[in-house]
């Protein structure tokens, strides 16, 4: 993988969900993104939804990166992304979430579909490691954020550790044929 995953000057806001007090994951993400040329505003741990949204309005990042370790990412993340998608000033913001999405271990993959259909551009389950996140970063060069899928009509998700809105669009025809 190239050392230049991110175009120099790409802006990122990094945060945890409101109930997550872990900081090491955010520092790691900040260092990773900066090492690859990104500019990072790290909001820290236990950040209220409204503060995340306020900072994103002020910073206008290319991507909001939400990281979770406490196992409540699916709950807090879904609430946050619904607020972001309802805000006219943030509705087109790229937002990804990753980490420990729940407390079910390998079964946390069950939360991916709900988070993507809820509005996240990509979801990275902790079991998958960093490769999928790095691939996402290297694909950021397209100017437009991909369209999100409609919540209805999608009956399956990718079996990989990262799922994007595009993955769900690709799966919808296959599910309909099944």
How does this structure look, described?
The chain is an alpha/beta fold and 178 residues long. It has six helices and six strands, in the order βαβαβαβαβαβα. It has helices at residues 24-35, 49-59, 73-86, 112-118, 131-138, 165-177; strands spanning 11-16, 39-44, 63-68, 94-99, 122-125, 162-164. A six-stranded mixed beta sheet has the order 2-1-3-4-5-6, with helices on both faces. Mean pLDDT is 79; it is low at 148-161 and 168-178.
Note the main sheet: 6 strands, mixed
Strand order of the largest sheet: 2-1-3-4-5-6
First-to-last CA distance? 36 Å
Average pLDDT level? 79
Tell me the series of helices and strands, N- to C-terminal. Answer: EHEHEHEHEHEH
General form = globular
Helix amount: 25-40%
Oligomer: single chain
- How many distinct helices? 6
Radius of gyration: 15 Å
> In terms of per-residue confidence, which ranges show pLDDT below 50 for 5 or more consecutive residues?
148-161, 168-178
Computed structural class: alpha/beta
Strand content: 15-25%
Tags for this entry?
single chain, 178 residues, alpha/beta, six-stranded mixed beta sheet, 6 strands, 37% helix, globular, disordered C terminus
Please outline what is shown here.
This protein has 178 residues and is an alpha/beta fold.
Element layout with pairings:
Blueprint (H helix, E strand, L loop, with lengths): L10 E6 L7 H12 L3 E6 L4 H11 L3 E6 L4 H14 L7 E6 L12 H7 L3 E4 L5 H8 L23 E3 H13 L1
Parallel strand pairs: 1-2, 1-3, 3-4, 4-5
Antiparallel strand pairs: 5-6
Helix pairs in contact: 3-4
């Amino acid at each position: 993988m190239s050392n230049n995953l991110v175009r120099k000057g790409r802006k990122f806001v990094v945060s945890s969900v409101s109930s997550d007090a872990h900081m090491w994951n955010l520092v790691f993400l900040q260092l990773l993104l900066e090492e690859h040329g990104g500019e990072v505003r790290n909001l820290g741990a236990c950040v209220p939804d409204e503060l995340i949204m306020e900072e994103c309005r002020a910073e206008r990042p290319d991507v909001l990166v939400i990281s979770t370790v406490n196992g409540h990412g699916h709950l807090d993340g879904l609430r946050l992304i619904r607020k972001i998608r309802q805000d006219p000033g943030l509705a087109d913001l790229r937002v990804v979430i990753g980490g420990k999405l729940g407390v079910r271990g390998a079964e946390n993959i069950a939360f991916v579909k709900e988070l993507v259909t809820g509005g996240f551009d990509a979801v990275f389950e902790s079991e998958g490691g960093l490769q999928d996140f790095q691939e996402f970063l290297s694909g950021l060069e397209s100017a437009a954020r991909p369209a999100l899928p409609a919540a209805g009509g999608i009956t399956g998700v990718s079996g990989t550790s990262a799922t994007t809105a595009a993955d769900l669009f690709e799966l919808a025809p296959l599910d309909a044929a099944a």
